[in-house]
Q: What sequence folds into this?
């Protein structure tokens, strides 16, 4: 997708990490031939680190498909945490 189509809440791939977009600022060029810049702020989905980048309007950005599900915490052990999907009862 083009950078001009980026919206708040979208998950994109940037610098090898998945980033959820929290803010998009549009900066138009003052000259006729200048490109419009899209300043994107977000957070890394895994580490929650802040992310900031600027893209030209005609640049392509890789989107990532994510799905939110309602889960229930079951227990924690040495391997990690176990959750159950509330719809399918899968762990």
A:
């Amino acid at each position: 997708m083009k950078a001009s189509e980026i919206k708040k809440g979208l998950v994109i791939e940037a610098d090898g990490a998945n980033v959820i977009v929290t803010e998009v600022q549009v900066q138009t060029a003052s000259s006729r031939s200048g490109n419009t810049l899209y300043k994107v702020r977000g957070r890394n989905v895994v580490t929650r680190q802040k992310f900031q980048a600027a893209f030209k309007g005609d640049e392509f950005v890789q989107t990532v498909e994510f799905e939110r599900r309602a889960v229930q915490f079951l227990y924690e052990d040495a391997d990690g945490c176990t959750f159950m999907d509330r719809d399918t009862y899968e762990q």
Remarks:
- Strands lie at 11-14, 17-27, 37-44, 50-56, 62-63, 71-77, 80-85.
